[in-house]
């Protein structure tokens, strides 16, 4: 597996601190330090950036980020068993790692980070999508982050980069591609993890755009897209009848066919519809 620093191999760290992965926490550990360093490199040049990491576990990606030159890493970890292992990393990289114990869904990291900020994480499966949606839908844009380099189940990754007409295309693709450049940077097989999950994984890299691709009110766009894809097999005029009483007129005003279905509509089309719905 090689080494990227003077610290022990991750298998040894896990044995020493009894850090067996817990399914209840959505944990699947990456133990190959060369692989974690590769993921860190996928996040780009980190030397002038603070990096937010969620769910570091025994610290494989943490070490990769620091070894690749991250100015400072803020790691949020819910599992207190990981504290001693992360403390050893902090000691090996003085002043460059801060660890917060707690739930990433409940912690505002902004006070602990200095821009420019990037996010890089092997996200716990049970909170990954919710965190991504939060990062893509802040009250104001641009967001606090420049880029997101995130590990997901491959199925989720494909939903993020999906194009109209595909089965994977839906709300997640719209939210991601409206405000960011999204691409799959790496694919990882189950055997790369301990324990091996039942599915393959992918690293997705998203770069925040200075402004959305097309004008629309974020809350209206989100409401329209959610309604459309909640009943994706129905024609738009039926799926969206709860959005506005005259939805057919608004669909036509947006240049859309009321008989189309959600998966046929481009991002630009949904933004046009959101503008039409927002008009009083």
Keyword list:
280 residues; alpha/beta; Rossmann fold; Helicase, Ruva Protein, domain 3; 2 domains; seven-stranded mixed sheet; two-stranded antiparallel ribbon; 35% helix
What does this structure look like?
The chain is of the alpha/beta class and 280 residues long. The chain has 2 domains: 199 residues, Rossmann fold (3-Layer(aba) Sandwich); 61 residues, rRNA adenine dimethylase, C-terminal domain (Helicase, Ruva Protein, domain 3, Orthogonal Bundle). It is 35% helix and 18% strand. It has a 7-stranded mixed beta sheet, with helices on both faces. It has a two-stranded antiparallel sheet with strand order 1-8. Strand 5, helix 5 and strand 6 form a beta-alpha-beta unit. Helix 2 packs across helix 3 and helix 8 crosses helix 11. The longest helix has 13 residues. The radius of gyration is 21 Å and the shape is elongated. It starts with 9 loop residues before the first helix and ends with a helix.
Q: The CATH topology of the largest domain, please?
A: Rossmann fold
Distance between the termini: 61 Å
Number of domains: 2
Residue windows where pLDDT falls under 50 for at least 5 positions? none
Order of helices and strands: HEHEHEHEEHEHHEEEHHHH
Overall pLDDT metric: 94
- Count of distinct strands: 9
Q: What is the topological layout?
A:
Layout: H1 10-17, E1 29-30, H2 33-42, E2 50-54, H3 60-67, E3 72-77, H4 83-92, E4 97-101, E5 117-122, H5 128-136, E6 147-153, H6 154-161, H7 171-179, E7 180-188, E8 193-194, E9 201-208, H8 218-230, H9 236-239, H10 247-253, H11 267-278
Parallel strand pairs: 2-3, 2-5, 3-4, 5-6
Antiparallel strand pairs: 1-8, 6-9, 7-9
Helix pairs in contact: 2-3, 8-11
């Amino acid at each position: 597996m090689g080494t990227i620093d003077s610290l022990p191999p991750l298998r040894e760290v896990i044995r020493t601190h009894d850090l067996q992965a817990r399914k209840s926490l959505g944990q699947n550990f990456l133990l190959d330090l060369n692989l974690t360093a590769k993921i860190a490199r996928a996040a780009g040049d980190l030397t002038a950036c603070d990096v937010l990491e969620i769910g570091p576990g025994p610290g494989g990606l943490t070490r990769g980020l620091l070894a690749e030159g991250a100015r400072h890493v803020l790691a949020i970890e819910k599992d207190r068993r990981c504290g001693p292992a992360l403390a050893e990393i902090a000691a090996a990289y003085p002043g460059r790692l801060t660890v917060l114990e707690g739930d990433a869904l409940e912690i505002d990291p902004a006070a602990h980070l200095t821009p420019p900020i990037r996010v890089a994480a092997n996200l716990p499966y049970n909170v990954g999508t919710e965190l991504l949606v939060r990062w893509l839908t802040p009250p104001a844009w641009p967001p606090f982050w420049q880029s997101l380099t995130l590990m997901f189940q491959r199925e989720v990754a494909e939903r993020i980069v999906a194009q109209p007409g595909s089965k994977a295309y839906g709300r997640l693709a719209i939210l991601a591609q409206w405000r960011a450049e999204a691409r799959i940077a790496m694919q990882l097989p189950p055997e790369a993890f301990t324990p091996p999950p039942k599915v393959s994984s992918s690293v997705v890299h998203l770069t925040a755009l200075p402004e959305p691709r097309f004008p629309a009110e974020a809350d209206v766009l989100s409401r329209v897209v959610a309604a459309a894809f909640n009943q994706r097999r129905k024609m738009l005029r039926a799926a969206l009848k709860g959005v506005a009483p005259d939805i057919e007129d608004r669909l036509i005003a947006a240049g859309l066919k009321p008989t189309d279905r959600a998966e046929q509509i481009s991002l630009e089309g949904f933004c046009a519809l959101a503008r039409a719905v927002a008009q009083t």
